[in-house]
Amino acid sequence: MNRGKNMELLAPAGDMTCALAALDAGADAVYAGLKKFNARERSGNFTFDEFGSLLRYAHERGKKVYTTFNTVLRESEIPEAAEFLAKLDYIRPDGVIVQDLGVVRMIRKYFPRLAVHASTQMGLHNSDDIAIAASLGIRRVILERQTTLEELSSIAKKTFLELEVFVHGALCCCLSGSCLLSSWFGGASGNRGKCKQPCRRLYGNDKGKEGFFLSPGDLAAFPLIPEFRKMGIASLKIEGRLRKPDYVANVVRAYRLGLDASEKDFPEAAKEAQKILARTASRHPTLGFYKKESMEKVIRSGEVGGLGQYCGKVTRVLPGALETVLEGRVHVGDFLRVQGEQGDTGEVFCVLSLKVGGKPCVKALAGTKCVIGTKKEVAAGGLIYRIGETRNDMEGRIGKMAPFKPEEELCVSLSEKAVFVSFPRFPGKKWQEPISLAQAEKHPFTPGELEEAFGRQGELSFLPRIAKSEVHGKIFLPASLLKSLRRDFRNFCTENMTEELLETPSRQALEKLLADYDAMKRAVVGEAERANERILSGTGRERVAPFFLPEGDLPGEWEKRKEEVEKLGVDTFYIASLGGFLLKKRFPEKELALIPAPPLPLANSFAAAEFLSLGAEEGILHLELGKEDMCLLAEKSPLKLLFCKEGRIVLFATRANLEKTSFLRTGDARKLLVRKEGPLTVLCPEEILRFPEEIPNTIPLRDARRREKGLPEEKSSPFNFYRGLS
């Protein structure tokens, strides 16, 4: 476990070029997504062959590769997701970054060789959350980006898990994993890798003012490296799987300076790093949510929410081109983005050609009226940003990368009478060769030489990794005999350790998973009307545990829970963050009903099974599910389910200091109600959202449970997803 002595520098890899650029610049590891089930579907991403080739390339250089499997998984996707996980089990990346608890369960139960890293999308932000994560077999937690430095320090002292934090790049203004704003704008779920970045749009408020009220600056936490080191943080993460290679390389190079500098040399390294970072395209730099003072200023509503170096406005749209008067230089091959004046995402394209005064050129400087060639449709008046510079795309180098081979552990032993090799994953596969060796007079054969001899066998269908090497006695092993033994071992592996055999454990695990899935049996489905009404304080026996609970508030919150349970007789809690499940442990003598509720995503039967194992009795379905996925899940879920029939849903919650207003108005005149609730500002739609369709075989589960306990029936089943919201 890495606890900060040698902090890992972790870089984004949206494609192979970015991955190589990051590793060349000094990254210790990269994280990359496959073509599906990752939170950045707009990036290039990797095929399995490409990902495997990258993994081999990195491992040969002592680097690591993590894969992102960090989206909410729907019931209809379970068979395909299971196949993805089986392939990952065969390829075996250094870690799988996960949001959905259903995926956590699938990996732990069927593919335990895979190390699970809790994605920031899981929203873990205090030591209670992390304690539950540890109980689920998670090895590393990527903390919520709105955790302060003080809170982070306290959390780090209370856990043995590796902690990873973001240090540079774009910030989400909403608490991770809870944003429904992109879905509300048009069905593009941020929890499904399809975010349209509505936080970067232009909004109006109740004072008639327009601004980018939800658009934060970019995180630039280089000055905090010494503090992260003292806390024992395992990994410093750079955001940017949608960024270009030049950006990734520059940021990695800058942070490498900081990580390699001694405490004495850090100030000088910081100066050099800032020069490098100044060349990258970004929004205004900020320490984000790490410091209270930066948290208050993380949003500058008067600044355009766009990303990159501003280069001017589109003055005229031409066939296959646009015209502009540049306010920054542009080079053929640069990547530009044209953003609408309302802050819409905009089109990204590579500059195909430039003309100044009607003549072709390779670059145009600020103050120049020029025509930029593009095949993308852009709007007149759009804002032009340069988001990536010309760079060698490394095609030749990528084409020469070695194909993937799985790594397989070997145990090798040598004695005077035999050499023996075993394969821990395949107990029936063993190779042994009888020999007769003499004692060494001067230079006995060492375990290191044994490891070198059998760990470098390039002709095999796998890459040998020596788990254990032993030499019994002081033995002399002639070079000619060693060569013969190596040849015999290769022949054994060619005949016995085939690719089909090496895939067998992963394939068998997949078959077991799918068989268990087929055998899953349905519980019951119910509906909850008026999904987001306030539970009045002091009435009933139900309470809502807060979905966001800063580390410093934990003691007070547990005292409040204790009073509710022991004095007021509260017996039912809606749990909206993982730490809430510790209620069972804190009050073992009480029969408490725990109901997972949004933003905890319950979207598939494996997640339902995981919540059941944590002590849940019922669960509220993920808010982004449609009728088809609800019905599919209802046929398999071992947990009793509730779905939201009606309610005003929280779309967005943040610790950022938003301008005081009662509502924000979108470009199509819809309103978002804005309220301050404790440490958070939350946004809800003005209209009540209703689920119009009927779900087959639904019954009012909570009313049935109340009857069992002798409590009065309710005409509706009110609950609140977030603390104190109506």
Verbal overview:
Helices cover 28% and strands 24% of the residues. The protein is α/β, with parallel strands linked by helices and 726 residues long. It has 4 domains: 249 residues, TIM Barrel (Alpha-Beta Barrel), CATH 3.20.20.70; 90 residues, Elongation Factor Tu (Ef-tu), domain 3 (Beta Barrel), CATH 2.40.30.10; 95 residues, no CATH class; 189 residues, no CATH class. The strands form 9 sheets. The protein has an 8-stranded parallel barrel, surrounded by 4 helices. An 8-stranded antiparallel beta sheet has the order 17-16-22-13-14-21-18-19. The chain is globular and about 90 Å long. 47% of the residues are buried. The C terminus is likely disordered.
According to CATH, the homologous superfamily of the largest domain is Aldolase class I
User: What is the fold named in CATH at topology level of the largest domain?
Assistant: TIM Barrel
Low-confidence stretches: 529-539, 714-726
Query: What kind of sheet is the major sheet?
Result: 8 strands, parallel, barrel
- As a percent range, the share of helical residues equals 25-40%
CATH architectural label of the largest domain:
Alpha-Beta Barrel
| Separation of the first and last Cα atoms | 44 Å
Q: What's the overall average pLDDT, rounded? A: 88
Oligomeric composition of the shown chains: single chain
Question: What structural class do you assign from the helix and strand content?
Answer: alpha/beta
Portion of residues in beta strands equals 15-25%
Rg result: 28 Å
Number of helices: 20
Total strand segments = 40
Reading off the top of the CATH hierarchy, the class of the largest domain is best stated as Alpha Beta
Number of domains: 4
Cα shape: globular
